[in-house]
Design goal:
Blueprint lengths: L2 H13 L4 H21 L8 E7 L4 H14 L3 E7 L2 H9 L5 E4 L5 H11 L6 E13 L7 E2 H7 L7 E3 L5 H9 L10 E2 L3 H7 L7 E5 L9 H9 E4 L1 E3 L2 E3 L3 H5 L6 E8 L6 H10 L1 H9 L3 E2 L11
Parallel strand pairs: 1-2, 1-3, 5-10, 6-7, 6-8
Antiparallel strand pairs: 3-12, 4-8, 4-9, 4-12, 4-13, 10-11
Helix pairs in contact: 11-12
Length: about 300
């Protein structure tokens, strides 16, 4: 309510000869209403508030670790993590259903234009970790490696020997992009969920599972250790050279299916979303990434002073 409206109200009150107690009560009431409306417009900030972020199931582990650590350091914050295919997460970002998303593949020109049109702000991807798509077979498989050419041939074969965790999953989208094609042109099998691919691959001795490294990467996690012990991770041969998906090759980006995880936000101010992104890309967040068994994107030099 504006000042002119208040003045008109007071004139009417004077006409009906209301007593001072009633007048004082009304003044306090309207002042409180105005204050409440103003407080409703106050946005969240990096230390308090509630937001929702989205991440593909392939990045669940590192996403959970980062959000849990951030909330532990900022008890007045609540970050709801929604596990959803990255394509659908991007659509939710455009519709302001989520504040931040985790991506691994490059956006298409159409997606970049849609972001520019819908969000109306400059897109600034915030890179925070290096992950990879890894190829696994049962522990007793005779296969010891796979070439990029073999992988391409298998994904064009009616045998459908490559198993992905879902249609339009981040793993499938990324592999298709690396091979210079699109998912709709590839032929493959599906077992829903990265962990389920690992658990069930033993039933299909001639198949090869394609999962995220983050599914197996937690070095001291019992479940991750059990999963690693049931399968064999295949080195990938590219241009005559063999690359294992270890930290050395991922750090150097020489493993052919290394990918960089990054955040995109629709938050135009320095609120909880941007606060979380900054945390994840700075030292404490990068330590969390490292403990998850992934390669931190930002390397911090450690200086030791000897006395």
């Amino acid at each position: 309510m504006g000042f002119l409206e208040l003045a008109e109200l007071f004139t009417k009150l004077d006409r009906v000869k209301m007593n001072y107690k009633q007048l004082f009560f009304l003044i306090c009431f309207f002042a409180l209403m105005i204050t409440c409306k103003k407080s409703d417009r106050i946005p969240d900030d990096p230390h308090q508030g509630t937001i929702t972020i989205s991440a593909d199931e392939s990045f669940r582990s590192v996403s959970e670790a980062l959000t849990e650590r951030y909330m532990a350091l900022n008890p007045k914050t609540k970050i709801n993590l929604v596990i959803k295919k990255e394509d659908l997460g991007f659509l939710d970002l455009l519709e302001n259903k989520v504040r931040v998303i985790v991506m691994s593949r490059e956006l298409t020109n159409e997606e970049k234009e849609a972001y520019k049109l819908k969000i109306d702000m400059k897109m600034e991807p915030a890179k925070f970790a290096a992950d990879a798509v890894v190829f696994v077979v049962p522990k007793n498989s005779t296969r010891e490696s796979i070439t990029v050419e073999e992988l391409s041939n298998e994904l064009n074969s009616d045998q459908k020997n490559i198993i992905f965790d879902a249609t339009n999953s981040s793993n499938l989208n990324f592999v298709a992009q690396k091979l210079g094609t699109i998912p709709n042109k590839l032929k493959f099998s599906i077992i829903n969920g990265n962990k389920n691919v690992v658990k069930e691959i033993g039933q299909y001795p001639n198949k090869i599972g394609a999962i995220s490294l983050n599914t197996l990467s937690r070095p001291y996690d019992k479940e991750s250790e059990q999963l690693r012990n049931t399968i064999k991770i295949l080195p990938v041969i590219s241009k005559g050279k063999t690359f294992e998906p270890n930290m050395k090759n991922i750090k150097a980006m020489t493993y052919p299916f290394t990918r960089v995880l990054y955040f995109i936000t629709n938050e135009a101010y320095y609120g909880l979303g941007n606060g979380f992104i900054r945390f994840s890309c700075q030292q404490i967040g990068q330590i969390v990434v490292e403990k998850e068994g992934l390669q931190p994107y930002t390397i911090f030099n450690r200086e030791v002073q000897m006395r």
